[in-house]
From TrEMBL:
Keywords: Disulfide bond, Endonuclease, Glycoprotein, Hydrolase, Lyase, Nuclease, Signal. Pfam families: Ribonuclease_T2. It comes from Prunus armeniaca. The active site is at 60, 113, 117. Residues 1-24 form the signal peptide. The gene is S1-RNase. The keyword Nuclease applies. This is S1-RNase protein. GO terms for molecular function: ribonuclease T2 activity; RNA binding. Belongs to the RNase T2 family. InterPro entries: Ribonuclease_T2_eukaryotic, RNase_T2-like, RNase_T2-like_sf, RNase_T2_His_AS_1, RNase_T2_His_AS_2. One of its GO terms (biological process) is RNA catabolic process. Self-incompatibility (SI) is the inherited ability of a flowering plant to prevent self-fertilization by discriminating between self and non-self pollen during pollination. In many species, self-incompatibility is controlled by the single, multiallelic locus S. PROSITE patterns: RNASE_T2_1 (PS00530), RNASE_T2_2 (PS00531). One of its GO terms (cellular component) is extracellular region.
Amino acid sequence: MAMLKSALAFLVLAFAFFFCYVMSSGSYDYFQFVQQWPPTNCRVRTKCSNPRPLQIFTIHGLWPSNYSNPTMPSNCNGSKFDDRNVSPQLRAKLKRSWPDVESGNDTRFWEGEWNKHGTCSEQTLNQMQYFERSQNMWRSYNITEILKNASIVPSATQTWTYSDIVSPIKTATQRTPLLRCKPDPAQNKSAPKPQLLHEVVFCYEYNALKQIDCNRTAGCKNRQAISFQ
Ligand SMILES: *[C@@H]1O[C@H](CO)[C@@H](O)[C@H](O)[C@H]1NC(C)=O
Ligand SMILES: *[C@@H]1O[C@H](CO)[C@@H](O)[C@H](O)[C@H]1NC(C)=O
Ligand SMILES: *[C@@H]1O[C@H](CO)[C@@H](O)[C@H](O)[C@H]1NC(C)=O
Ligand SMILES: *[C@@H]1O[C@H](CO)[C@@H](O)[C@H](O)[C@H]1NC(C)=O
Ligand SMILES: *[C@@H]1O[C@H](CO)[C@@H](O)[C@H](O)[C@H]1NC(C)=O
Ligand SMILES: *[C@@H]1O[C@H](CO)[C@@H](O)[C@H](O)[C@H]1NC(C)=O
Ligand SMILES: *[C@@H]1O[C@H](CO)[C@@H](O)[C@H](O)[C@H]1NC(C)=O
């Protein structure tokens, strides 16, 4: 009897701990791996420290995501960013793949992405794994080159449709990506400007190992021309 009681107490306790763990670690359905086109950042956000932004797609972040709640989860109760978790070898790679194109402080950018997003999937990827996995995702497909091979290169005059840009990426990856755009800040009512291609999102399943189709529809405005410059 005593043994049964303690076994029961143990189970209750174990469940309580498990529950607390799940609550504090956040939960999510899948990952969005977001790559950005630096010239668009520099055009729409702030002044960039480097007047000649990089002309390659670079990492914005790896975001654990929820199908029913697009902005969640974020800022979970995980460990705080510690740059000792990024080895010197990995750091050198991330400085190329994941630079802060706005202020130039790469470490602060990584810190912000980990604290806001990485903490919500810490049960799957610890800090070291989070940055390594992101680096591998970036390496797996070169979006800049995929687009270049489809003759989609920065242009001040040419515009494309959503599917013009998605098609070659889909062909290369065998998965549907999501495009995100920003309105051109230099708007002109009498001659509306096309939206600017800003980000390309790849989706990954829960363990961040296998790429899957993105099925969110909100991204660029449908039916509006897209400019890539
Ligand atoms: C997604 O968000 C909804 C609404 O906030 C929440 O009820 C649900 O538990 C979340 N799902 C996952 C897997 O995190
Ligand atoms: C984090 O923990 C604090 C204190 O335990 C709690 O108030 C807060 O809601 C938690 N936040 C998340 C996102 O779980
Ligand atoms: C860059 O950001 C990190 C992390 O927030 C901070 O510790 C460091 O002092 C910053 N470096 C500069 C040069 O501002
Ligand atoms: C990706 O492709 C672009 C355009 O061809 C090239 O400049 C860049 O070096 C490539 N990046 C990597 C990591 O191979
Ligand atoms: C782009 O085209 C070059 C030359 O044909 C080819 O070597 C390269 O593999 C292609 N890259 C991609 C990502 O399709
Ligand atoms: C807006 O577009 C019209 C028509 O192309 C042009 O005449 C005008 O100068 C533009 N205004 C600005 C502020 O660019
Ligand atoms: C996207 O796919 C997931 C998993 O198959 C599904 O649960 C979700 O409802 C889908 N969302 C939309 C908007 O189709």
